[in-house]
Specification:
HIT family, subunit A, 2 helices, about 110 residues, globular, about 25% helix, 5 strands
Amino acid sequence: MTSDFYCDEVLSGKTPVDVVRETETVLAYHHTRPFWPVHIVVIPKRHVPSLTDLGDAPEGLLEELLGVVQSVAREVEVEHGAARVLTNLGAYQDSKHLHFHVNHGEAGGAS
């Protein structure tokens, strides 16, 4: 895996994704290799290193990103009765691009 899968693959268009929601600055899509039965990834459309290192992200980007995370999580919760929202930092963060996972179900439960 590259250090920034989201810029190198998703945002470049090399890896096609099934879009859930898109704004001018945020993209939410179904994970390309889901770990949970419902597994949605939400990312900023520009490179932002992580939640603890916003780099040169413009003012308001984090607020818009979290608004999309909240909206997607609410939809999953309404449809399935529950939702999780996860992000990783440091060594736990495989792709060094801020991203949130919105999911539901048991791990490994995807088909």
